[in-house]
């Protein structure tokens, strides 16, 4: 009786070919791996403190509105806190998707286009999010008319 042979996974498919040398890829991948662990641990702390401050110490979810965010972002600590969450979450997620693209995109051209879209969207979201956090004005003056809400000081 003949022993059945089991083919290697993806044996019929073309394995992705990387043009990088093994030494440079190893160092980059090690740093990326370490970044994922450290950023993940830091994100857990940042997110749980964020949720605790927003939902537990105040009046819960019903108290979160435009005025709440405006008051929170008036303090530079919370601007930096939210900026750190944004940057770490985007870089952590981008690195994870990069690994998935490397694992499953078989053709170099497909891998290049997917990574191009990934990196472009990451840059756009990080830049727009950073601009929103630091240029946020809850009491804007539009065409010389102050749109004053109850939480803005009348000037």
Automatic annotation (TrEMBL):
Its main location: membrane. GO terms for cellular component: membrane. Residues 1-23 are annotated as: Disordered. It is found in: Membrane. InterPro entries: SQR/QFR_C/D, SuccDH_FuR_B_TM-su. The chain crosses the membrane at residues 30-53, 80-101, 113-136. One of its GO terms (molecular function) is metal ion binding. Keywords: Heme, Iron, Membrane, Metal-binding, Transmembrane, Transmembrane helix. It comes from the Bacteria. CDD domains: SQR_TypeA_SdhD_like. Gene3D superfamilies: Fumarate reductase/succinate dehydrogenase, transmembrane subunit. Pfam families: Sdh_cyt. This is Succinate dehydrogenase hydrophobic membrane anchor subunit. It comes from Arthrobacter echini. The lineage of its organism: Bacteria, Bacillati, Actinomycetota, Actinomycetes, Micrococcales.
């Amino acid at each position: 009786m003949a022993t059945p042979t089991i083919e290697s996974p993806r044996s019929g498919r073309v394995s992705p070919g990387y043009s990088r040398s093994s030494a440079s890829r190893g160092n980059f991948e090690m740093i990326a791996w370490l970044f994922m662990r450290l950023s993940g641990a830091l994100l857990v702390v940042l997110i749980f403190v964020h949720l605790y401050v927003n939902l537990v110490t105040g009046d819960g979810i019903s108290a979160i509105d435009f005025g709440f965010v405006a008051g929170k972002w008036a303090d530079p600590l919370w601007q930096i806190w939210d900026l750190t969450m944004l940057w770490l979450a985007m870089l952590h997620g981008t690195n994870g998707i990069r690994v998935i693209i490397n694992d499953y995109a078989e053709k170099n051209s497909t891998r290049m286009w997917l990574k191009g879209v990934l990196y472009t969207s990451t840059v756009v979201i990080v830049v727009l999010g950073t601009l929103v956090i630091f240029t946020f004005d809850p009491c804007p003056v539009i065409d010389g008319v102050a749109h004053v809400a109850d939480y803005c000081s009348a000037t």
